[in-house]
Each structure stands twice: as structure tokens, then as C-alpha cells.
């Protein structure tokens, strides 16, 4: 029997998960202080900056107990955002235990609870840990009671540590050994290895991070991915230490990686089961699902010449991120681009930022929307994730929109603003549940479309950052939804169309028209700016014709300056987008597309 | 042939709208004149002094702050270095500096065109502009010009001022017309960021009139002057036939010119190429350093850039730009899509083409900045 403990850490952003993990690495001698780069696990720049984990990671440590025994730890780090809850569930599946890390000053947050319940559902042994006990604002007693309320047990079972000072880390290491069960090690069964993450390497292909659940994965064996039915050879297998460490086999209970010239992440999906081609398992590990994009948006290059570069960038991103989907889209206003699907808003933001940082792409993204289901008059049901695909008003019988169940954790002081926000967003109140420490869990059913549009920012700003949000998909419900079109001199600006609730269309239409009037420079002719539902105009503004645009003085000293200004204007014109005869500057698009409720 | 521009960087006080380079310290005038003389002398025996000088323009600042001796020494230096056969020597004057004696003194030095900075006859407007003169001084200065029989003159007006009505503008024009001016420069007020006016607008204390109202005033100026036989020949310049400003018009035709004094610009185009350069706008440097040290980097212009400049400048004038000139002097011809665009503008009434010359209509002139960018894009 091998002496192994597989565990993960459940924590909210900022509760010190990564710092605590760093301490574990240090105390087990996995990494010397010299090699210590702050927060080793989050290796993408973006992850470090935002303090969130986007990809799952795993690291193997050898812990020498005070009694001389050596135990292998596999710490599996999980993403910390609702967009990635599927990845979290797969990472939990690979573990027998979880450290529930809670900031002793801040208490439990919504995301933590949701992940905690998942862990309990999967029968993981939970070790509650109060972190940051060195902080002056720490309230181990109060927050400890919150934990007891949630998971039962006694306050005495809660460990108190400081990732920063290292206090309590020894006790934690011992608790991991003592409380978390060793994995079952059924090496005689046919191979079943769970892929809890996979990354793409341009030389090696997909690298799958796996937990062997049953059987043995041997180097050189033929392997089959049970969901995708693809067959490869296990060319290289190994452990995930700070660097990859090759080995000949991974047995049931162990965590490691496997490389097999898998050309695309599409073949090695998170949640899939790897089995042996020769001796196949009968059934895969349950829980695999195809991740479906929830949020959609158009991505267009600012400069239409950059279309091919954008395609290349998206292809590369998709190699690394199988949950990103996209297909070409053409907009009359913005030219050639892509319609992309994301797991959620954070995922979308991450993709946008990576396009900017890693590929230096200058892009315009259209307003994000969810996927609607539309019943047509002829009885057919279609799915629409792009406003431009919405059929004419006359052909639509019913529009269905996705609803989510949102759970918001907040100090009780902010119940008022949160309820106002949820009501504004067409939310349906479900209940509220008071907890220790003056905290409340409020549950609402909300149209997902209302949540993707700056809901989280509003929630944060309305509660001084204290409230946290978690949500899960509920169902599709009928809604009075319409497509709001924007027209310039009668020509529709397709990139500015949106699907919205009828009651909000008027307000939104007026606001967009006003914004465009402000930002579209006067043209040689008058321009009518209209918002319309179908053929019915619901808001209108007028941009008057350009009457005067001429420099008063143009003598010897003015010529260079004037010429340089013209050069600049010529450049600006290149970036203008044309709709019918009207020229729209980039900024007008950006301003309208980034407009939030407050504007 | 070439022209000479001299920048006199002194003023009694700062006009609220002005972003030209000037100082209000009078003690530096004489040292400036001496530095100016050495700058002029530095051009001795260069290729620039070989061409005949046909125009001289003293601008500022306020050239009329210089006295007889100072002006005499400047003209003396110019004559000793350059081959001058001037058809036009213009000097900018502020009404409060002008006496009949001063006018005959500058006429004796060869100045044959006076440019009077009237701007307005409205007391409140002059105060708002923070001008050094009042309406009475403007009247008496113009009277003095008439009485001394000055060969020719021009007067400046500014319109489109905050709060200015069409009526006060019409009154300003009428008053100016009573002096039978051969030439008028009428500028629509430009709010420059680094001026007192610019700051006030930025702070929201002053609201400049909107474009529609300025456009209306532009039409008032044009039609009222035209009725008096004073025709628009450039966006801001109007004259009786044959009284157009020669020096300024030459800027728009790419004639060579040398600028003296801090912030002055120069342009020279000969067989070795076309260049623009400028003196740094820094009197201290100008007084203490050699010309090569205060002269800023030279810009070399390609034929294509020159052609675009020519269009930018020529289309602001009543002469327009001829296709033949573009082809012969600049090797430039319009593309098919440019022609298509031009035809479209002709149809809309913003441009005309006559004898293969492209011009703006008066509607086009008002939005010529926009049209030129369109044409060149």
C-alpha cells in the first residue's frame, strides 16, 4: 500500500489559498525558499494579477512526518470562480479530502459554500482551516461558529493557521495525514484515469493531468479516451512536482500526467476517462459532460486587415482552452470577425485580455448575450445566441430565456441595495437565510441575461465589495423579449442590436441614441439616429449636418501643424466604420458597447 | 523669388485668444533687435540670400512696439544681406501705437502695407479679448492711415465671439467699411488650449458659440463685404480686386520664405529638395545662442507631402488647385476613387471643377478641413 493523500483547497478569492499552498510546498521541502516565487501555483500572469486561479493545477509533495513516516501529498488546486464550476467538480472528484480555507477576518463567501457543498456531495473529508489568524481583524471564534453551522463538528476541530507567518502549518500537515483517507488502490481492475485538467503544449500536444482511480497506467500502453473514443499511446507519464518528473507507471490512487501526441485538447476533455485500449473498463467515471458556453459575444479586429491574425490568435487560445468556442461572423458595421461562446463573463474577460496581452490584438467586442430559445409560429424551436439571428417579430411565437438561481452572501446591512438590484434585474425572490456574524444568504431566480450585464460589478459596488455571488443554471422560461435595433439614416447597425426585455427597450433605446448623438461627429448631411423594435421606432435623435469645420489661420507657421493634424485625421478615418453613408468612429462603438446601467 | 517674415515677440498685454509666441517685458526689445540682426547676417552669402526678395512681412507679437532706430537697423541688415526688390512690405500695427508720425516713419523705411489689428469696434468685445486698445483708438488709427495716404492697408476683425450677435458683427463690418479698406482679414475666433480663453472654456466659464451660429456669421461677413466690392479670396481673407496680400498668398503657393525671430518658420524648395524648419519659441535662447542652436530640426518634404499641402492650402483660396499644376509641379494626380468623390461633392454643391481646376464653393469652404481630410483619405 502506498501512503498517499489527495486533497484540494476550497477557498474564496483573497482568502489566502495560494499563500497557504506555498507554505505547504516549503514545509515539505518540495521547494526551497530560494526558488519560491510568490504563489507558485498560479502561473499565468493574469492569475497572479487577479489573484484567481483559472486552470486547475496539481503538485506532488513528499511529507516527512515527525515520526519518520513519508507520505505523498497531491495538492490539486481548483479554479475559484463560478464560470469554472465544472472544472472544480472534476478536480474534487480526483481527491479524497478538501481543506476548507476561510479568512478569519472575512468569513465564508458564497463561492466557498457552493464548492463546499459539491465537495460534501462527493463525500470528501473536509478539514476546516481558519487562515490569516495573524490579522488584527481576525475573529476566529465568530467565523469558527459559521463553519460549525455549515458543516457540523466542533470548533476544536478547526485548525488555525497563518499562511503568511507559517503558524499552525505543522498541525495542518499532520491533520491532512490523519483525517483524510488514503485513496483506494484497486490496481487489479482495468484502468480508469480521470482527466481533471489538460493543457496544450505546441511540441508535445495535449498534456493530461490525471488521477488514476482504478488499475495502472503504464508507459507505452495503448490508451483510449472513453468519451471521445480517441486512441493514443501513453508515450510519457510522470508525476507533477515543481517540474514534471517522468516515471514508468501511475497506480490507482496516484496523480500525475500523461502525454500521448494528442493533437488537440478537443480529444482530451476535462472529465473524460482514460482507459487501457487492450483491457477496456466497462463504464467511464461518472460526471463527464460537454461544457456548454453560456455567454456569447462578437469579437472583431479594430483594423479589418487583422482578421487573419485574430483567427490565428483564437486558434491558439482554443488549443489551451477547450471551453472557448467560436465561429466566423460578418457584421455590416464591423466587418469580418467571430462569434465566440464563453463559460461566463469572467471567462470572456480573460479571453479578451489574453488576446490583448499575448497576441497584441486590438479588438472590439459586442455586448455579451445569453442563448435564447425561440418558438416560431410554424411550431419550430430555434436557438439564438446572436441578436442578428433573431427572426422577424411576426414569426415569433414565444421567446425563452435561461434563468439562474443566484445565491448572494452578504452582511445583513446590504440586504436593501441587493434586493433593489435584483428587482431591477427582473429577479424573483426565493428566500433569505440568516447565518452567524450578521450574515445573510439571499436567493433569487434571475434571468441570466440580466446577470451577464454588469450585475457583478453593481453588486460589488453596492455592498462595498462585501457581497459574494454564486449561481447555477435553473431552466428556460418564457419572457417578453425583443430585439432592439439601432438605425442610422435608416440603415441598421447590426453590431449594436441587442435582445432585451420589452420594458427596458425604451430606456435603453433612448440612452444608446443619446450616446451616439454625442459621439458620432457631424457629417455633411443630417443623420437620424433611431432605436427600433421591428419596424417600430421607439427613440430618435438627430445629428445635425456639419456646418463649419475650417481653420481660421493658415499662414507660414501653421502649415506643418495643420498637415500633421490632417495625417492624424486620415489615420482616424481608417479606423472609422461605415454604416450606409454614415461614418462611425471606433470610440462611439466602444462607448455604446461598454455602456453600463449607470451611464 | 522669396519672402521674408520677421517675428517681433513683444506685446503690451496678452490678448485672451492669442497663442502666438510673445512676451510682455519691454527691456528685452533692444537685445532682441541685436540678436535679430545677427540672425539676418548669418544668412549672408548663403543660397537663401541669392534669390530676389519680393515680400517682407513684420508680424508678431506687436511690431509697432519697435521704434524708428530699431526698425531702421533691421531694414538696414536685410538690405545688406538680401537682394530686395519688394513689391509688398507689410507691418502689423496695433491701433494704440499708431500716430501719423509713426506711419510716415515706417513708410519712409519702405513699409507700403499696414495691417491694423482692429478686431472689433465694440468696447465690451475688445475688453473681453483683452486688447490693449479701445474703439476710439481703432477709429483714430484708421483715420491716420487715410490721412497719411498710406499706399495700402488691411484690417483684422474677429467674429464668432462668445455672446456676439449678428447685429454687432454687422456694425463692426459697417464701421470698418466706412474707411474704405482695400483688404480685410476676418477670422472666426479659434479657442486655443494654451490661452486664457482656452482655460476659461475648459473650466466651463465661457461657452463658445456653436458651429451653426459661427457658420451664419461667416456668411454675413462674406455677403456684406462682397456687397462693398471686397471679395473673399481665402477662408479668412477678403480684398478689392488686385489688392490680395502677396506675402500671405505666397505661403499657399509654396513660394520660398525665410522666417526670423523666435518661433518663426521657414520653407525652402529648390532642386536639392523641400524643407521646413523653425526657430525655437524661446527668446532667452534666441538672445544667447547661435542660430544653429535655436533652429529646430529640419523636416524634409516628399513630393507627395508637398502635393497634399498644396491641396490643403490651395483649396482654401478662390484660385483653387489646377490639375495641371499638381501634375507638373508635384507629379500628383487624383485616383479614380478621388475623382468619384470629387464628382459627388460637386453634385452636392460643395466643390466645383472649372478648366481642370478644383475649387471649393462657399458652402464647401466652410467645411473645408473636413473635405480636405476626405479628399486625401
Summarize the SSE layout with pairings.
The complex is a heterodimer of chains A (599) and B (377).
Chain A: E1 4-11, H1 17-27, H2 45-50, E2 57-64, E3 70-77, H3 85-93, E4 97-103, H4 110-121, E5 125-131, H5 140-151, E6 159-160, H6 169-179, E7 192-201, E8 205-214, E9 216-218, E10 222-225, E11 231-233, E12 236-240, E13 244-247, E14 249-251, E15 255-259, E16 273-276, E17 295-301, H7 307-320, E18 325-331, E19 335-342, H8 345-359, E20 363-365, E21 372-376, E22 381-384, E23 396-411, H9 415-424, E24 428-435, E25 439-447, H10 448-452, H11 455-462, E26 468-479, E27 481-488, E28 491-492, E29 498-501, H12 502-519, E30 527-533, E31 536-543, H13 559-574, E32 577-579, E33 582-584, H14 586-593
Parallel strand pairs in A: 1-3, 1-4, 4-5, 5-6
Antiparallel strand pairs in A: 2-3, 7-8, 7-16, 8-15, 9-14, 10-11, 10-16, 12-13, 12-15, 17-19, 17-20, 18-19, 21-22, 21-23, 23-25, 23-26, 24-25, 27-28, 27-29, 27-30, 30-31, 32-33
Helix pairs in contact in A: 7-8, 12-14
Chain B: E1 2-8, H1 29-41, E2 53-60, H2 68-81, E3 84-93, H3 100-108, E4 113-119, H4 123-128, H5 135-147, E5 152-159, H6 166-177, E6 183-188, H7 196-202, H8 211-227, E7 231-234, E8 237-239, H9 246-251, E9 256-260, E10 265-270, E11 273-278, H10 283-288, H11 291-294, E12 299-301, H12 303-314, E13 321-322, H13 323-330, H14 336-348, E14 351-354, E15 357-360, H15 362-366, H16 368-376
Parallel strand pairs in B: 1-2, 1-9, 2-3, 3-4, 4-5, 5-6
Antiparallel strand pairs in B: 6-8, 7-8, 10-11, 11-12, 13-15, 14-15
Helix pairs in contact in B: 1-2, 6-8
Enzyme class (chain A): hydrolase
GO molecular function (chain A): hydrolase activity; translation elongation factor activity
Family (chain A): Belongs to the TRAFAC class translation factor GTPase superfamily. Classic translation factor GTPase family. LepA subfamily.
Amino acid at each position: 500500500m502506498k501512503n498517499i493523500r489527495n486533497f484540494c483547497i476550497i477557498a474564496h478569492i483573497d482568502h489566502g489559498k495560494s499563500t497557504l499552498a506555498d507554505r505547504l510546498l516549503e514545509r515539505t521541502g518540495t521547494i526551497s525558499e530560494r526558488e519560491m516565487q510568490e504563489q507558485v501555483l498560479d502561473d499565468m500572469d493574469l492569475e497572479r494579477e487577479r489573484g484567481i486561479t483559472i486552470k486547475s493545477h496539481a503538485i506532488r509533495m513528499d511529507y516527512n512526518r515527525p515520526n519518520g513516516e513519508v507520505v505523498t501529498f497531491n495538492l490539486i488546486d481548483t479554479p475559484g470562480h463560478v464560470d469554472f464550476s465544472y472544472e472544480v467538480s472534476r478536480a474534487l472528484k480526483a481527491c479524497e479530502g478538501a481543506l476548507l480555507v476561510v479568512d478569519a477576518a472575512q468569513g465564508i463567501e458564497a463561492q466557498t459554500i457552493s464548492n463546499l457543498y459539491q465537495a460534501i456531495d462527493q463525500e470528501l473529508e473536509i478539514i476546516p482551516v481558519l487562515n490569516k489568524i495573524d490579522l488584527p481583524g481576525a475573529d476566529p471564534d465568530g467565523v469558527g461558529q459559521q463553519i460549525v453551522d455549515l458543516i457540523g463538528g466542533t470548533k476544536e476541530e478547526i485548525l488555525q493557521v497563518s499562511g503568511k507567518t507559517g503558524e499552525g502549518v505543522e498541525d495542518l500537515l499532520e491533520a491532512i495525514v490523519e483525517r483524510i483517507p488514503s485513496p483506494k488502490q484497486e490496481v487489479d481492475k482495468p484502468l480508469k484515469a480521470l482527466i481533471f485538467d489538460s493543457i496544450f503544449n505546441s511540441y508535445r500536444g495535449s498534456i493530461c493531468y490525471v488521477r488514476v482511480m482504478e488499475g495502472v497506467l503504464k508507459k507505452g500502453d495503448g490508451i483510449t479516451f472513453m468519451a471521445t473514443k480517441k486512441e493514443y499511446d501513453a508515450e510519457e507519464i510522470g508525476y507533477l512536482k515543481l517540474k514534471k518528473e517522468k516515471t514508468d507507471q501511475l497506480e490507482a490512487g496516484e496523480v500525475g500526467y500523461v502525454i500521448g501526441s494528442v493533437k488537440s485538447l478537443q480529444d482530451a476533455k476535462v472529465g473524460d476517462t482514460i482507459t487501457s485500449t487492450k483491457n477496456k473498463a466497462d463504464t467511464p467515471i461518472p460526471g463527464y459532460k460537454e461544457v456548454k458556453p453560456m455567454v456569447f459575444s462578437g469579437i472583431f479586429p479594430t483594423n479589418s486587415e487583422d482578421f487573419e491574425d485574430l483567427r490565428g490568435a483564437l486558434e491558439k487560445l482554443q488549443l489551451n482552452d477547450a471551453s472557448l468556442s467560436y465561429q466566423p461572423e460578418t457584421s455590416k458595421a464591423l466587418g469580418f470577425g467571430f462569434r465566440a461562446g464563453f463559460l461566463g463573463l469572467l471567462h470572456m474577460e480573460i479571453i479578451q485580455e489574453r488576446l490583448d496581452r499575448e497576441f497584441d490584438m486590438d479588438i472590439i467586442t459586442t455586448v455579451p448575450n445569453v442563448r435564447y430559445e425561440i418558438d416560431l409560429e410554424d411550431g419550430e424551436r430555434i436557438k439564438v445566441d446572436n441578436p442578428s439571428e433573431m427572426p422577424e417579430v411576426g414569426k415569433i411565437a414565444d421567446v425563452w430565456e435561461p434563468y439562474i438561481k443566484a445565491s448572494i452572501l452578504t452582511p445583513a446591512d446590504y440586504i436593501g441595495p441587493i434586493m433593489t438590484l435584483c428587482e431591477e434585474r427582473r429577479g424573483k425572490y426565493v428566500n433569505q437565510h440568516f447565518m452567524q456574524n450578521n450574515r445573510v444568504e439571499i436567493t433569487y431566480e434571475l434571468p441570466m441575461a440580466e446577470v451577464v450585464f454588469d450585475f457583478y460589478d453593481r453588486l460589488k459596488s453596492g455592498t462595498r465589495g462585501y457581497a459574494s455571488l454564486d449561481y447555477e443554471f435553473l431552466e428556460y422560461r418564457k419572457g417578453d423579449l425583443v430585439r432592439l435595433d439601432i438605425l442610422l439614416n435608416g440603415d441598421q447597425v447590426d453590431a449594436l442590436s441587442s435582445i432585451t426585455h420589452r420594458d427596458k427597450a425604451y430606456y435603453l433605446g433612448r440612452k444608446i441614441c443619446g450616446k451616439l448623438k454625442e459621439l458620432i461627429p457631424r457629417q455633411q448631411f443630417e443623420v437620424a439616429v433611431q432605436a427600433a423594435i421591428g419596424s417600430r421606432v421607439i427613440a430618435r435623435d438627430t445629428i445635425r449636418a456639419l456646418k463649419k469645420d475650417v481653420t481660421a489661420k493658415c499662414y507660414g507657421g501653421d502649415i506643418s501643424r495643420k498637415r500633421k493634424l490632417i495625417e492624424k485625421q486620415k489615420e482616424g478615418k481608417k479606423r472609422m466604420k461605415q454604416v450606409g453613408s454614415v461614418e462611425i468612429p471606433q470610440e462611439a462603438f466602444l462607448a455604446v458597447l461598454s455602456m453600463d446601467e449607470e451611464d | 523669388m522669396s519672402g521674408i517674415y520677421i517675428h517681433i515677440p513683444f506685446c503690451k498685454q496678452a490678448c485672451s485668444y492669442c497663442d502666438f509666441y510673445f512676451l510682455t517685458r519691454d527691456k528685452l526689445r533692444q537685445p532682441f533687435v541685436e540678436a535679430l540682426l545677427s540672425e539676418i547676417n548669418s544668412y549672408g552669402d548663403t543660397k537663401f540670400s541669392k534669390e530676389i526678395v519680393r515680400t517682407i512681412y513684420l508680424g508678431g507679437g506687436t511690431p509697432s512696439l519697435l521704434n524708428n532706430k530699431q526698425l531702421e537697423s533691421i531694414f538696414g541688415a536685410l538690405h545688406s544681406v538680401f537682394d530686395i526688390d519688394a513689391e509688398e512690405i507689410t507691418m502689423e500695427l496695433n491701433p494704440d501705437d499708431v500716430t501719423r508720425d509713426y506711419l510716415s516713419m515706417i513708410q519712409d523705411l519702405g513699409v507700403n502695407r499696414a495691417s491694423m489689428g482692429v478686431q472689433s469696434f465694440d468696447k465690451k468685445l475688445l475688453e473681453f479679448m483683452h486688447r490693449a486698445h479701445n474703439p476710439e483708438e481703432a477709429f483714430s488709427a484708421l483715420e491716420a492711415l487715410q490721412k497719411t495716404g498710406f499706399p495700402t492697408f488691411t484690417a483684422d476683425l474677429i467674429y464668432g465671439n462668445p455672446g456676439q450677435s449678428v447685429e454687432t458683427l454687422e456694425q463692426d463690418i459697417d464701421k470698418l467699411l466706412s474707411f474704405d479698406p482695400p483688404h480685410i482679414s476676418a477670422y472666426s475666433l479659434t479657442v486655443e488650449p494654451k490661452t486664457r480663453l482656452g482655460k476659461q472654456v475648459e473650466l466651463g466659464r465661457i461657452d463658445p458659440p456653436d458651429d451653426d451660429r459661427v457658420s451664419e456669421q461667416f456668411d454675413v461677413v462674406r455677403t456684406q463685404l462682397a456687397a462693398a466690392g471686397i471679395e473673399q479670396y481665402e477662408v479668412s481673407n477678403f480684398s478689392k480686386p488686385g489688392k490680395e496680400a502677396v506675402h500671405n498668398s505666397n505661403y499657399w503657393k509654396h513660394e520660398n520664405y525665410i522666417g526670423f525671430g523666435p518661433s518663426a518658420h521657414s520653407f525652402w524648395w529648390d532642386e536639392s529638395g523641400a524643407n521646413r524648419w523653425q526657430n525655437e519659441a524661446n527668446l532667452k535662447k534666441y538672445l544667447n545662442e547661435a542660430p544653429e542652436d535655436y533652429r529646430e530640426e529640419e523636416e524634409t518634404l516628399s513630393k507627395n507631402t508637398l502635393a497634399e499641402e498644396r491641396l490643403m492650402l490651395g483649396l482654401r483660396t478662390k484660385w483653387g488647385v489646377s490639375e495641371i499644376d499638381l501634375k507638373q509641379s508635384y507629379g500628383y494626380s487624383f485616383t479614380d476613387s478621388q475623382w468619384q468623390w470629387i464628382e459627388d461633392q460637386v453634385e452636392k454643391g460643395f466643390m466645383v471643377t472649372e478648366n481642370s481646376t478644383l475649387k471649393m464653393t462657399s458652402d464647401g469652404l466652410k467645411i473645408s478641413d473636413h473635405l480636405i481630410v476626405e479628399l486625401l483619405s
